[in-house]
Amino acid sequence: MSPSHTGPAAAAASAGHSAAPATPGHVVVVGGGISGLAAAHRLAGAGARVTVLEATSRLGGKLHADEIAGVPVDLGAESLLARRPEAVGLAREVGLGDDLEPPAVLGATVWTRGRLRPMPKGHVMGVPGDLGPLAASGVISPAGLARIPLDHVLPRTAIDGDVAVGEYVAARLGREVVDRLVEPLLGGVYAGNAYRISLRAAVPQLYAAAAGGRSLIEAARGIQRRAAASTATGPVFHGIRGGVGRLPLAVADACRAAGVVIETGAPVRELHRTGPHGWRVVLAGRVLDADAVVLAVPAPAAARLLEAESPAAAGELAGVDYASMALVTMAFRRADLARLPQSSGFLVPPVDGRTIKASTFSSRKWGWLDKAGGDTAVLRTSVGRHGDEGDLAWDDADLVRLSREDLAEAVGLRAAPVAARVTRWDAGLPQYPVGHLDRVARIREHVGKLPGLAVCGAPYDGVGIPACIGSGQRAATEVLATLVPGAEDGAGE
Q: Could you tell me which of 176, 328, 472, 490 has the fewest CB atoms within 10 Å of its CB?
C-alpha cells in the first residue's frame, strides 16, 4: 500500500476536479491485533480516516516477536499458512516480502506409546488415506490398526448438520486414531479437544467429503488426490526473518504512514449509536465520534461493548469459550541440542498423560533463527489445552522444570538452558465446538442490523493468521459499504 491515501478524494484530485468529494468517513477500529490492523490497513487504503484503539501497551495480540538470550524469537504464533493468500500478501504489501522464509526442516514426530515415532504421511488432519505409512509408523497399536478397515464396510455415519471431529472419526476408524493422531494435530491449532471441535468448522474439506460418501478413508484419499493434482506450488508454510511478530508492527507502520492514528493503552469502555449512521466510542475521560466501528477484540470484550446496542449479539458472543495455554521458550548452548532428532519437533497426544503437548525445535525449524543464534539454539514447548489446564496453575519456574523433565524423557535432553521465558496466553484461543458456525452466522445477523458496525478476528473465521487477516479485511469492506459519503464529523473530546 502506498503511504498516501488512494481513496475517492485522491482519485478526484488527480482527475483535475476543483473540489474533491469527502473521504468515506472516520472509522474507529477497536483492537490492535493482526485482525484490527489488517482492517485499518484496508480502510486507510480506501481513503477513510482511521483510529485504532488498543487496550494493552503492545500491538500484535498473539503475534509477539521478542528475544531470549539476545536471540530474536517469536513468543506467540511462529508461521503463516502460505497456501492462503492473505498473510503472505499483506506481508509483501508492508515490505516484508523479502523476509518470508519457509521452514528449513519439515516433518514432525509423535511422542506416544513410550517413544518418538514418525508422523505418518498420507493423512488429512490425522485421518489416514493410506494405511501403509500409518502401520509403519507404530503410532497406532496392532489392535487399533485392525479396527480401521471396518470403515469400508460400516454403514454410512449420518452427519446431521454438524458433528465433533473426534466423535465422527472414532465412529468410522476407532478411538485410537483420534487419541493418537487427530487429537494432537487439532490441539496444535486450537488448543482444544477433538471430541468437542466441529468437523464442519475445523476440517471443512473432510466434512464436505464425508457428508457425500460412506468411507472416511476414501474421503481422505480423495482430498489427497485433488491436492496432488493441484497447480499450487511453493511452501505450505512461511516464517518471517526476525519473527512473525514483526508482521503486525510493519502493518502498523504502514498504517501510520497512511495517516492512521494508533493508540495503545486505550481501553474502550462503552459503545453507543448516535443516530442512523453514527457511533460514540467512550474511553476513560473522553469520547470519539465515528461514522463506523470495527470490533477486532476477543468475544468477551465484544460482548461487553455490544450489550447496550445489541443484547442478542452480546449473548451469542458471551457463549464463545476460550482455551488457555503457555509457551515455554528455552535457549541452550548449541552443542547441547546437537543430538536432537532430525525433525522440526514433536507432538504429544494428551492420552499419554504428559505435561507438554508439543515441542518445536525452533532453531532447527527456521534457518534465520539458526543463523541468528550463533552459539545459542532455541526450542520451545507448549502446555495446556481446553479442559486440561490444570498444569497452568504451576508458576513459571515449575513450568520450565516440568518441560525439561518431559524433554529429558522424550529426546534425552538433560542440559540446563542458559535462559528460559514463559509466555502465558490466558483465554488465548477461541474454541470451535459443534454448532460454532451457526453461532457466528447469528452474531453476524445481529451485528448486521447496526449500520456501520462489523466484527472480526479469531472467534469468527478461523484462528490462523491468514484467516484473521482475511476477517479484518472483510470487516473493513463491510463498514465501507455502509458509510454515507461526506458524513465525516470527526472525533470529539
A: 490
